[in-house]
Amino acid sequence: MCNFATVKPIVILLSLLLAAACTTTVPQTSDTEQLMGEALDAMGRHHLYEAERKAYSAAILSVDSTELADALTMLSLVYVLEGKEHQAEMVMAVLPREQTMELVRLQDQANDQRRRRERLVFGSLVGALLLAVGGGYWWNRRRTAAFQQKVNLLMQQVSQPAVRADIVKTKQGADVLYAILRDENISQMGKREQLAVSETLHIVEPDLAAVIDTVELTPKETFYCIMHYYGKTDQQKAQCFCCTEQALRSTKSRLNKKLDIDQLSHRSTKGQGQVVN
């Protein structure tokens, strides 16, 4: 026996369509097709409310069973896209089986396309994340390798007989430079470490050494120049000196009166700087 609660919505829908068709002037077939085309165009522009209204009008104004089935199929598809599952089921219940299967096929195809888009977006996000992580790792390895190359060059230089007498000072300068690059505590380093690292800079960073040699600097000012040259932040500089950033600004202010400190950060790429009197 048929369940009246299930059939009742279908009967109501068919009654509404029949009543509207009886009270409306029968249009030409081209008018119905035009409404179907407008509904399809609205779907393409994601204007689902407009597509629903056009498809509903096309169903009401259809002149034969074929046009009615086509219009109801489109109306069902719009309901599915709008998330109105109950309305879609009501309309599908009155469609011929062939139309229903075609609608199900279209719905499955739309779901597959949505899932493919989601997988593509997820894959793109994962790829971008891996690229960022890999790029950061590569940059860090490259920077470490460049510094190691300079250290190796330094060790080759100190092994020559001409500089063997200064091997202790050169090693000490390399240790000071290494401590600065590693953000270690250098607050207790003074004049001896300044002279040692200045000698080392002539080998590994001749451009920076040329600038420092043009003015008379205190040990702290020399270390500050090296930090600035290698792109250390104010927080990293203060950490190395074991002081506040306010005290660090005082050092920078005094240093700016001797040379153009801002030019140092560009010398590693441009190879040129400007000393101010």
What does this molecule look like?
The protein is mainly α. The protein has 13 helices and no strands. The chain has helices at 4-22, 29-44, 48-60, 65-82, 85-93, 97-158, 167-181, 191-204, 206-212, 219-229, 234-241, 245-256, 264-270. Helix 2 runs parallel beside helix 4 (65-82), helix 7 (167-181) crosses helix 8 (191-204) and helix 8 packs across helix 9 (206-212). It is rod-shaped. The model is unreliable at 1-8, 18-29 and 267-277 (pLDDT under 50).
Offer a few descriptive terms.
277 residues, mainly alpha, rod-shaped, disordered N terminus, disordered C terminus
Separation, N- and C-terminal Cα atoms:
105 Å
Q: What is the count of DSSP helices, taking H or I runs of 4+ residues?
A: 13
Main sheet summary: none
Kindly state the mean pLDDT as a whole number? Answer: 75
Helicity level: over 70%
Write the layout of secondary structure elements.
Elements: H1 4-22, H2 29-44, H3 48-60, H4 65-82, H5 85-93, H6 97-158, H7 167-181, H8 191-204, H9 206-212, H10 219-229, H11 234-241, H12 245-256, H13 264-270
Helix pairs in contact: 2-3, 2-4, 3-4, 4-5, 4-6, 7-8, 8-9, 8-10
